[in-house]
Amino acid sequence: MRVEAGQVHGFLGPNGSGKTTTLRTLLGLIRPDGGRMAILGHEVPGTLDQVAPQVGAIVESPQFFPHFTARDTLSLLAGAGDLPEQRVDEVLELVGLRDRAGERVKTYSLGMKQRLAVASALLKNPRLLILDEPANGLDPGGIREMRTLMRNLSEAGMTVVLSSHILGEIQLICDSVTIISLGRRVAFGPVDEVLAQHSSGAVRVRLEAVTDLPVAATALTRAGVRVTTNDDHLMLAGVDKPATVTRILAEQSLYVSELAPIAVDLESVFLELTATAPVPGQHRQVDQSVRIDGTAPSAPAGGGWGA
Amino acid sequence: MSLFRTELRRLAKRRFARWMTAGGLLVLVLVAAGMFLSNQKIGPDQLAEARQAADRQHQEQVRWAEQERANCERAKAAGENVDYYPADCAEISPPPRESIEEQWFLPSTFDFRKSFGEMLIPLAAILALVGFVVGASFVGAEWNTGGMMNLLLWRPKRLTVLLTKLGALLTGLLALALPATAAWFGSMWLVANLRGTTEGMTSGTWQSFLITGLRGIVLALVAATVGFALASLGRHTAMALGGAIAVMVVGQVGLGILLSMAQVRFAEAWLLPTYAIAWMTKTVTLQDWQACNATYTGECEPATLDITWQHSSVLFGVGIVLFLGAALWTMRRRDIT
Question: Where is the signal peptide, in residue numbers (chain B) (predicted)?
Answer without folding.
Answer: none
